[in-house]
Design brief:
It comes from Hirundo rustica rustica. The protein is an all-beta fold. The protein has no helices and 7 strands.
């Protein structure tokens, strides 16, 4: 009689290079028309050998995500200069 494992063994090699705190886009499929669409970016919370977890999408297979840059944050500041209002915009990325 041969014993079988109830769970598969971990892989000996990495199939993706995504790490927690990375930002990824998640592929979503629309029914009509059948076109791939990328949503995100979302921050990765956990990873396994073949999947990544985000707060918004839960566990997703590594073939359905791609690495992205951190989203940009825009801030505005209203100041008065020479009696006239002046609006200043600042752009920055999120800290990782």
């Amino acid at each position: 009689m041969e014993a079988q494992l109830a769970q598969t063994l971990p892989l000996d090699f990495a199939v993706h290079n995504i790490q927690p705190r990375d930002w990824v886009l998640v592929k979503e499929w629309k029914e009509a028309p059948l076109v791939a669409k990328w949503r995100g970016p979302f921050q990765v919370l956990l990873t396994t050998e073949t999947a990544v977890k985000t707060a918004e999408h839960g566990w997703t297979h590594h073939t359905q995500v791609k690495i992205s840059e951190a989203p940009e944050i825009w801030t505005s500041q209203l100041e008065e200069k020479d009696g006239k209002p002046q609006l200043t915009l600042h752009r920055s990325g999120l800290e990782q």
